[in-house]
Every structure is written in structure tokens, then in C-alpha cells.
Amino acid sequence: MEKSNTDQLHEDPADPLAKSVANGQTTTEDAVFGDITAEGPNYRSVGWVGTVIIMMKLCIGLGVLSIPATFDAFGIIPGMFLLIAIGVIATWSCYVVGNFKLQHPEVYGIDDAGFLMFGKIGREFFAVGFCLCYILVAGSGMLGISIGLNSVSAHGTCTAVFVAIAAIVAFMGASIRTLGRLQWLAWIGLAGILISIFTVTIAVGVQDRPAAAPQDGPWKSDFAIAKRPTFIKAVSALSTYIFAYAAAPLFFPVISEMKDPRDYTKALLVCQSGVTITYVVIGCLVYYFCGSYVASPALGSAGGLLKKISYGIALPGLIASTILLLHLPAKYIFVRLLRGTKHLTSNSKTHWIVWLSCTSGSAVVAYIVASAVPIFGNLVSLIGAVFITTLAFQAMACMWFYDNWKSEERGTLKWTLMASWAAFVIVLGVFLTIAGTYGSIVEIIDSYKVSGGSAAWSCADNSNST
């Protein structure tokens, strides 16, 4: 446990659930948060079921509704195969997160893992990447909320107003101090998003044709079993799959707030099974019924009325995702600033000032960049391409090598196969990073050729294209 706010980490051999009783008060001794008592926030209060819900909510957002359009790039069979393949890699990466945390209880975020592996440079690289990525993704969530509000209100007011409202709501929710107290929001949000996407899936199945298809004359879905996409289309579709499984870095702070981190693997397997089944079912069914006329996100595929209903049901899910995505990077900054001090787990004035500064600062940055940058969507894709694969896949492969390079099993068949797999993940990650960055840059150039980007703080209805 760190005793001061420095760049040093110290191994803590204590049981992560160790408790002591002094003066009639039970204290939980945690390698990250220090002494947790009833007088301050309980940062170790999430059970394994609550962990499943939080993890699934971090994974499943409206991004799942971009998956059917990727099947139009690859075709159903190759699309399903690639989606599951990325899911397998992501599940292994998340599994490594749990093992690494148990081996090194003092690790709170991926930057701590970076410090153990690569020193100060590793810490700062992963810290910047983590905060930059997920604060901007939270900004994307604010835009998603504004799209939902525009859809259900028929563009009731200026979009910039809706984005500001989303930012305020996200700040208020993200300022709830512990994941244990955010569990209820994750439950509601996950239920809302699942009901919404399955409503659209059922609707496109029972309707005569999708909203974007020709409305006159006979129509039949033009779905394809397999297709040959261009390189840019293939890279874009693969990037969608990677984003759909890009929550692994967020699982570090989640496991840190579990009552018993040893339940993490059980929660992970339930989470990833549910996420993958949802992705495959939604992707296959919506693309099967809509073919090349599938919308992205797919909520617009069933027509105007269903679009309003679906977005109305999905709004709690959009809000929950944005709150969690804002909460976790803000919590990381907060823990790093106060780690090793009494203020981290107390209700002191310093605690509250630093905590609210972290959440409000993160919200303001996400709001300003989302509203002011004309190519915000492309910017998120570019930053995601540069950092996400490294954060979500390659870092975990490096963690496996860090913990197993000097293992007693080294040289055995099992060790060799696992080392080969970890090396494959690193090489694949390099390719996907380069290819994704190239694809994102091409998309930015094409976007400017078409429209020059959107206006800053625009009032235009941003739900028209979804």
C-alpha cells in the first residue's frame, strides 16, 4: 500500500479482505484505499452480481446497435466469426486483469500496472491514454443523450441545450462516490438498453421492410452470407468490434471496489457470455431483416414512431453509461491525488473539494470537447484507434508476461502455448492500432470533403441520421 502520493508502489501481502476491530469500530484494510471505516465512503461494497451488472453496462450501450451495419460489410458468417474472435481475445484480456489484481493488490488502475511493467514512462502513458479515451467517450455519451432527447421530443429545443443538460446530469450522477451506490443505476440502465435494442430487433422482424428501404413495390432483404469489403470498410467494422469489447481497462477500478475480488472471474464469465450473446443475436437478426438498409445506430431501422419509443426506453441506459464512463476516470484522478492520505476514505473538506473538482473537471472537459470540436466523432475514433487496442489487449498480454516470465512452468507445453497466445495478441494489437489509425484519418479527411465537419455548439437536430 502506498504511504505517500509518490511514484512508488509497494507490495501488500495482506489479505485483500483483512479486517480489524479497534474501539468498537470495524476497519477494512485495503491495499489501495487504506483503512475503510463507517465514517467514510465504503469503497469495498460491490458484490459479484452487482459487478456483473456494472461490467455489462460498461460494455453494452448504443454501440451494440452499430454491429448490424458491420455485418453488411463482412456478411453474416464472417461478421459473426470476427465478432466472437474479438470477444475471445477481450475475455482473456479481462481475465488477466483479475489475476493481475489478485497478484498485485496495490494496483488500482491500468497506470499502476504500467508502472510495475515499464516504470514511470509506462505509468504516465497508460494514465494519459486511460483518461483521454474514456473522458472523450463520456463526451460521446453526452451527445448520445442529446440524440435521444431530440428523438423523443421531435427536436424540442437547440441540441446544444440538450448536450448541456446531459453534461449536468452526468456530473451529478458521477459525483456519487462509490460504485456500490451506483449499482442501482447500472441495473436500470442495463434493463433500459436491453429492452430498447430487443424492441427494435422484434420490430424489424415483424415489419414489412426497414424504414430506409424503398417503400413502394415488393421488397426483400438483401442480406449476404459473406461479402468482400474494402480495406477501409473492414478496418472500420473491426474497430466497431474492438470498441464493443473495450471495457477491460475499466475493470481494474471495478474489481478494486468488489467485496471479494476473488469473485471477479465468476462475474467476468457471466458478463462476457451475456454481452457476446447479445451482440451476436442483435447483429444477426437486425442485419438479416434489414440487409443493406440497416441504420447505424440501428434504432432508426424500424421507423419514426419506433425510433422515438426505443430512444425513450434507451435514455436511462444512455445516462447510466455516460455517468459510469465519467465516474471511473474522475475516480482514477481522485485516487491518484489523495492516495496514501487520510482524506481518501474520510468525509473531510479536502476529500469533498478534490472529489467534486475531479468529477466537475472531467465533465467540463468532456462537454467542451464534444460540443466545440467539429469532428468530435472522428476524434473519438482516432484516439480510440491509437489507445484502445493498447489499453484493452496489448497491455494485458504484457501483464501476463510480467507475472509468468519467471514462472516455474516456463518451458512446459502449457506455458509455451500461453506465451505464444500473449505474443499473438501483442502483434495483432500492433496491426489493429496501425490499421485503425489509418482508417480513422481517412474518415476524417472524407468527412471534411463532404461537409467540412459539423458546427461547434450546433443547434441542428442530430437525430436525423440515426
UniProtKB/TrEMBL annotation:
<comment type="similarity">
    <text>Belongs to the amino acid/polyamine transporter 2 family.</text>
</comment>
<keyword id="KW-1133">Transmembrane helix</keyword>
<keyword id="KW-0812">Transmembrane</keyword>
<keyword id="KW-0472">Membrane</keyword>
<feature type="domain" description="Amino acid transporter transmembrane">
    <location>
        <begin position="47"/>
        <end position="441"/>
    </location>
</feature>
<feature type="transmembrane region" description="Helical">
    <location>
        <begin position="184"/>
        <end position="206"/>
    </location>
</feature>
<feature type="transmembrane region" description="Helical">
    <location>
        <begin position="309"/>
        <end position="330"/>
    </location>
</feature>
<dbReference type="InterPro" id="IPR013057">
    <property type="entry name" value="AA_transpt_TM"/>
</dbReference>
<feature type="transmembrane region" description="Helical">
    <location>
        <begin position="415"/>
        <end position="441"/>
    </location>
</feature>
<dbReference type="GO" id="GO:0016020">
    <property type="term" value="C:membrane"/>
</dbReference>
<feature type="transmembrane region" description="Helical">
    <location>
        <begin position="351"/>
        <end position="376"/>
    </location>
</feature>
<dbReference type="GO" id="GO:0015179">
    <property type="term" value="F:L-amino acid transmembrane transporter activity"/>
</dbReference>
<dbReference type="Pfam" id="PF01490">
    <property type="entry name" value="Aa_trans"/>
</dbReference>
<feature type="region of interest" description="Disordered">
    <location>
        <begin position="1"/>
        <end position="21"/>
    </location>
</feature>
<feature type="transmembrane region" description="Helical">
    <location>
        <begin position="382"/>
        <end position="403"/>
    </location>
</feature>
<feature type="transmembrane region" description="Helical">
    <location>
        <begin position="125"/>
        <end position="147"/>
    </location>
</feature>
<feature type="transmembrane region" description="Helical">
    <location>
        <begin position="231"/>
        <end position="255"/>
    </location>
</feature>
<feature type="transmembrane region" description="Helical">
    <location>
        <begin position="153"/>
        <end position="172"/>
    </location>
</feature>
<feature type="transmembrane region" description="Helical">
    <location>
        <begin position="46"/>
        <end position="67"/>
    </location>
</feature>
<feature type="transmembrane region" description="Helical">
    <location>
        <begin position="73"/>
        <end position="97"/>
    </location>
</feature>
<feature type="compositionally biased region" description="Basic and acidic residues">
    <location>
        <begin position="1"/>
        <end position="13"/>
    </location>
</feature>
<feature type="transmembrane region" description="Helical">
    <location>
        <begin position="267"/>
        <end position="289"/>
    </location>
</feature>
<protein>
    <recommendedName>
        <fullName>Amino acid transporter transmembrane domain-containing protein</fullName>
    </recommendedName>
</protein>
